[in-house]
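ok trying this again, last paste got cut off
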Amino acid sequence: MMANEDGLLAMPLLTTESTTVSLLTDPTVSRVPLPLCPPTIGQLIDYKQLEKLGTAEDLLKSGKMSVDDAHEYFMRQYSYIIKNRKAKELAGSSSPISTPRSRPMFRVSLNNIPPANERVCKLAVAKRDWKKQAPTPGHPLYRDLSNLHDITYHLSYLHSVQTDISAEQAFQARLRGMRKILRSLPFERTAQELDLLTSYLRQISDLKERVKPTQIASIASIATLELVRDPGTTVFGNNAFYIVLKGQMLPMSLPHLLPTVQTTLEEFRSPTPVLNSETASLHAINIGRAFGTLTVIPNRAKNSRILSATNVGPNTELLRVGVAEFSLVCQKAQQEDNNEKINLLKSCQQYKLWPKISLTEVAEIVSWLVIPCNSWIVKEGQIAPYAGMIKSGKCKVYRRIIAKHKLSNGVRVRREKQVFIGELGPGDSFGEVSIMREEWSSCSILAKTTIYLGIITAEGVNSLDPTTRSLLLQSNNPMFQDITQSEVEQKYIEQESKREWKDFKTGVVKEFLKKSEINVGIGKFYKPQTQIDEAQNFVDYENYN
């Protein structure tokens, strides 16, 4: 260092050669690492694992492994080709120069992250599990991705030509899926296979028209596969319900399928007239159609020709649902439903001390109802449409009040306002007094979340025994009858104060952002929300409401 004429310190000028020598000889100067040589193929590939992939093709050709199993084996074994983690990092690094301090610095930055709220973590993990939220087969948004590894599938999108399968192809795919699942015994099927079979059965029109939607799942749990090998074999349909999955059947008489469950014996003549070959061919039972019954036909032998059919070709496959098994499953489902309704009534405070005979009588008239979020259930000043017992979900309770409202021009007018006075949750009920006494409701009820509740209509209450009706009336009182008008006015003042304070804070923040020329969400101020951010916003919304 030396001073120049102005008294300032000046750096000495060094030549390129002298600078290089000083940098190499100075021990205080840190060395710059040389670029890493790219790994060779022998360092990356594990040839023993690569040879194992060739066995999948041999097993596929020999018939010991299906196409789906071979594909799954290949994709599972493919990840073991890379030798070790270090080779993977070398193969996947985008830059040949890397500093050893980058990883410790990243770990230190992770340690500085504050712990998240427990509720936020649960919501974020639940959202990350996309498989549970994915639409199942039969859902309008479901899309078959079995051809995702087919190159023609992606080339079609590249050339703006969609290769969606036709309705016939989808129908044949469902039939193949049903036959594959039915080859296993009912107790050997997994929950996923039962759900898939239920979605397939919902597409069968002959079955969907004759049973309730809730009974199709029960049918999937007892359905079996019946193979008719010889042509001309008679299948008696008066003790079971059959769906043709492969082949063709010819009816022996008409009708070969009960139009409804409540069909009487008036439609069947005795003796049963047998159809000739030409008439039977006109009414042939093709793939996807059904014959037989799901109800017991009294005073008819098991080998009666009513609802029966004959086999046309060899190896015909039928889905069979026995009448006795279906009746037993329906009784069991009905018993479970009644027990669930009785438990719902017992969860309500006013029904806990009721005798079992009265609870059973009320449970018989209870039906289930699902109400979406932000839907009005009961309106103040009107008779309740039904009495409800909440099984899950939450409701907000409001009461009307006449208050002065300030318009944008400063004029104050009298308006009707809704004042929040409380909440209803699982174990609470409403509307019993309104439907029994035909009185107007003293408050309004809004669904805060999706509500699953059991309801009792006015017609159901009128069908009860007089003693049970009297007990029902004595056990219930109008909702929130202890809240006076002055308390409602005080709640309204608090509600409006919170709203005005929130509007004031929002206005101050907006004015500050406007003066600072900060456009949130645009340009450098744009920050996409993560799952943690969305979960935190949802928790804040729950706490505010």
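PB: full thing came through this time. Confidence is low (pLDDT under 50) at residues 1-37, 85-114, 126-133, 261-265.
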